[in-house]
Amino acid sequence: MNEQRKPPQNPNNGLEMRQLTFLAIILATLLVLVIGGFLIVQLIVIPMLNQNDTPPTTQTPGSNYTETVPGAEQQGPGEDKPSWLESLFAGILELFKPTDAPSLPAWKDPNATYPFASNASNGSVLPKGNGTVIDGSSTYSEYSIVVDMNSGQVLASERADERMYPASMTKVMTLLVAVEHLPHESSLQDQIAVTEAIQQAMAEQGSSGVLVSKDSVGDVLTVEGMLYAIILASDGVACLEMANYIAGSEEAFVDLMNQKAQELGLSGTHFTNPTGLHNDDHYTTCRDMAAIMAYAMQNELCAKIMSTKEFNAPFYWPAGDKTLTYYLKHGYLVDRVNSYYGSGSTKPNNLTITAAKTGLTDEAKSCLVSYAQGANGEAYICVTGFAGKSEQYIDDHVSLYNKYAK
Cα–Cα distance between 219 and 222 in angstroms, integer? Predict the structure, then answer.
């Protein structure tokens, strides 16, 4: 009977395996220590060292932004700073805290609830009737309408249903569509970075706004800051960045604008962009523009933004690793409409202009939509188009309110 012989075993094999295993354990331990030390230095030690070196907030007079310190808090009297050991322990715990999921653009969010959508009836805002025919020789503007918001009736009009170019009055609809499509209340604090492609496109097309400068590329603003920039600064970059955030592209956002126009029954309105830059196929009428303004003023958030004179919009500046602030001001228009000194006009009798949006292109000339309120609950909207200069449409609004809003 043949027996199979086992090959002779090397007694050193087991020793070598144990040595390799031990060496692997040592290397893995060293790797963990190096990575852990790096994280501790980056996340805990460096912030602790920088905590006391943060410069105070500075403001440059006459500039449109200021340097601020993100999250800075002053130490109150009697408060002791935590020891380095307490800070280290807190930092280690912070590493293991669960992080919130990143926010999604509105068009990608499957759980959107749209908390800022208007409850107003779409068909209730289109002004009815024609009112008194405005004598064209009494106004600088070639198109005009005055509407009583409480009754929905047109008080006076001139060429109110003829097509005109809205220029930046378009941004009232841009604001409205953006606000109604915000997926959550917390969406106002979502962050949007200014992209080079949009900044360059708006600069080349001559758009207005504080973000048109090439220095704004990379600046990170909140959605709220972008919305205020759309109205207060008439910012084209903010319009396009919000369009991408809400709908994924400018084209998709414009589809939402035209869809909203159809819902409101605006048969004389068509949009090709959210900025109001000229396009022959981008038009509205005084009656339709009054309806857009009326609907926007029934939306609480839109009305708040439209009625704000000044807003400080913080933004993160990556190049300097600092938080700065854009100063957005709309008081220039509102104050001038309420008390214009240039050609003898006074503010509207017993009315206060609380919201307005201007427009100006070579093709549209100077146009303006404004919202006025009285002390006893009166509310009116005036829209004018194709005036020669901004001073002239201000004169027109004052005189039209005085004559017809009684």
Answer: 10
**373 found inside a domain:** yes
Question: CA–CA separation, 213 vs 191, rounded Å?
Answer: 19
Residue 315 placed within a domain: yes
Cβ(261)–Cβ(253) below 8 Å: no
In a domain, 122, yes or no: no
Query: Using CA atoms, how far apart are residues 324 and 314, in angstroms rounded to an integer?
Result: 6
Alpha-carbon gap, residue 360 to 92, rounded angstroms: 56
pLDDT above 90 for 102: no
User: DSSP character for 51?
Assistant: H
**pTM as predicted:** 0.73
On whether the CB atoms of residues 380 and 371 are closer than 8 A, the answer is: yes
For 360, the domain range is 127-404
Total number of domains constituting the chain: 1
The CATH number for 144's domain is 3.40.710.10
Tell me if residue 122 falls in helix, strand or coil.
Answer: helix
| Collapsed DSSP state (helix, strand, coil) of residue 345 | coil
For 61-71, what is each residue's pLDDT tens digit? 333 333 333 33
Residue 185 half-sphere exposure toward CB, CA atoms < 13 A: 2
Q: What three-state secondary structure class fits 221?
A: strand
In this prediction, what percent of the chain has a pLDDT beyond 70? 73
Q: Is residue 114 part of a domain?
A: no
Per-residue pLDDT of 13-44, as tens digits, reads: 555 677 777 777 888 888 878 777 777 666 66
